[in-house]
Structures are given as structure tokens and as C-alpha cells.
From TrEMBL:
One of its GO terms (molecular function) is mannan endo-1,4-beta-mannosidase activity. InterPro entries: GH, GH26_dom, Glyco_hydro_26. The lineage of its organism: Eukaryota, Fungi, Dikarya, Ascomycota, Pezizomycotina. SUPFAM superfamilies: (Trans)glycosidases. The keyword ATP-binding does not apply. This is GH26 domain-containing protein. It comes from Penicillium daleae. Residues 1-245 form the GH26 domain. Keywords: Glycosidase, Hydrolase. GO terms for biological process: substituted mannan metabolic process. The active site is at residues 89, 192.
Length: 252
């Protein structure tokens, strides 16, 4: 992240790292392996924790939740704000999906989310981030059963990757935003997004040019800065286009 910030000439807002729960003993080694870089980055740390153990969501009992909370506590101790994106895309990584995958029902997910929320509740620098997959931008109603509740969700977000140039922010996010954010004093953060090829600049502008009047809760977006299946990289990839992208991200 420090190299990315150096190339941008600015400090990135969110810094996301993935971590897997594969048993009822959780040590967060993926997160702690980047500990020094996270601290130096100056970013909000988005800890994307995936409970992919065979026993499913029901395995995330209070003792396991306490282990998650212990790992998260190490970052606020150094002044880092943590958004705990627990069980993100819970509606996408279903048992029929390719690895990694979740096991369990919506109600079991909600119970596990609540266990984790209770475990971190005494740390004001750790927020619970609910981040389903938007599944095309037009299926917000189907997410109701996966929503843990206003009392324990601190940040509402969604993951979405556009596939066509005519995609617009409004089409992809407004229904979700209206359903889960309207009338609520909660931040809206895009947990994960990205585009490849010629679509990159179009989609980046869509993300950074929305009017505050229409989306007053919109606070941040996290771009998937990675070469996976396709090249999503904005900053760490093609240097010939870096200046254009830097101008969009930093100046627009």
C-alpha cells in the first residue's frame, strides 16, 4: 500500500486484506503478515474475513468470535481504524460456488455476524461492515434475509463489478442504497469493485463523481487492485495511463 500511495501521490482511504477462517482456531495470520504496512499506510483497515470452514456459519460461536476480536484489537492499539467486513458476499460464495465457499443459511449467517459484533462491541475503533454481492445491481430485495439488523451493522456496503460500458452508478447501486441506507445514519462504502480494459476509466469516474445530495451516506469505495482472471489494476499496472488515473482519483 505504501508503494501504491507513493505512485498516486496521495494516501488511500481503505486498505483491504482477505483472511480465511478454516477451523475454530483463528489467528488472522494473513492480516498480521501485513501488519507493518497497514500501520504505515494511514488508511482505514478493511479486514475481509471469510468463515469458509466446513462446519459453516454455525461454527462461529462466541469463543471463535472472541479470537477474531483479539486479532482486530491489535490494529486499534496502533491507532488504526478497522472496518470488519465479516462474511462478505455471503449471498455469492454459496455451497455450489467454486472455492472459497460458505456453508449455512441466512439465519445462521446472521447469528454468526451477531456473535462477532458482540465480541468487538467494546472497541469503538472496530466497526461491523455488512457487504453482500449486488448480483447485477437489481436484486436488493433478495438481500433482506441476509441483513443482520440496524442495531449491529455499523457500515453498509456492497460488492459489484460492471461488465459493460453503459453501466452507471445509479443503475448499479441506487436500489440497494435506497433499501438499506435511506433514513439511516450509517456510512455507505463500496466494499469491492473494479473493471478491466477500456472500462476502467469510465467506471472510475462513475465512482468518484457522484453528487453528495443524491448519496449523502456515500463515504468510500475500494478498488480491487489485482491481476486476477483479468487485470483490474489501476495504479500498479500500466504506468503509461497512471497519470490519467491519478488525476481522476486525486483531483476529481
Amino acid at each position: 500500500m505504501n508503494e501504491l500511495n507513493h505512485r498516486l501521490g496521495a494516501v488511500s482511504s481503505p486498505y483491504g486484506i482477505y483472511s480465511y477462517i478454516t477451523s475454530q482456531t483463528y489467528d488472522g495470520y494473513e492480516l498480521l503478515g501485513e501488519y507493518d504496512d497497514i500501520i504505515r499506510s494511514g488508511a482505514v483497515f478493511v479486514a475481509s474475513v471469510m468463515p469458509v470452514l466446513e462446519a459453516g456459519f454455525t461454527a462461529i460461536i462466541p469463543t471463535v468470535a472472541s479470537q477474531i476480536a483479539s486479532v482486530m484489537r491489535k490494529f486499534p492499539d496502533e491507532g488504526v481504524v478497522v472496518w470488519l467486513r465479516y462474511g462478505f458476499e455471503m449471498n455469492w460464495y454459496r455451497p455450489e460456488a467454486a472455492e472459497p465457499r460458505y456453508h449455512g443459511t441466512p439465519s445462521e449467517f446472521v447469528s454468526s455476524f451477531r456473535n462477532v459484533a458482540e465480541a468487538v462491541a467494546n472497541n469503538p475503533m472496530v466497526s461491523m461492515f455488512w457487504s453482500p454481492n449486488n448480483l447485477g445491481g437489481d436484486s436488493a430485495e433478495t438481500l433482506d434475509e441476509w441483513y443482520p439488523g440496524d442495531d449491529i451493522v455499523d457500515i453498509v456496503g456492497t460488492d459489484f463489478y460492471p461488465l459493460a460500458r453503459n453501466q452507471a452508478f445509479r443503475r448499479c447501486y441506487k436500489e440497494f442504497y435506497d433499501r438499506f441506507l435511506t433514513g439511516k445514519d450509517k456510512p455507505f462504502a463500496i466494499g469491492e469493485t473494479g473493471a478491466s480494459g477500456d472500462l476502467k476509466e469510465h467506471w472510475l469516474r462513475e465512482l468518484v463523481t457522484q453528487r453528495k445530495e443524491e448519496y449523502p451516506n456515500y463515504v468510500s469505495m475500494a478498488w480491487f487492485e489485482y491481476n486476477k482472471e483479468v487485470d483490474f489494476r489501476l495504479v500498479m499496472g500500466n504506468r503509461s495511463t497512471l497519470e490519467d488515473r491519478r488525476r481522476i482519483l486525486v483531483l476529481e
